[in-house]
Amino acid sequence: MKKFLVVLISVGALYLGACSGLGGTKQGDECGGSTDDCSANLTCQPIKGRGKSFCCPTPPESSDYQNCHAAN
Hints:
two-stranded antiparallel sheet
């Protein structure tokens, strides 16, 4: 019984760890227009000249990711 509980807790912890990675799109990644798509402290916003929305900080120019900067 004790081994079963240990296995059950381990599987639960692995599941929660895997799900936590699904919390949002990373900085510079394309998003579907909703800020809910993005990880914490990022906003899904259209970037001038790119024709798509990306998860970027505000202002987007403060990012190190090229997708957050206006295309020339």
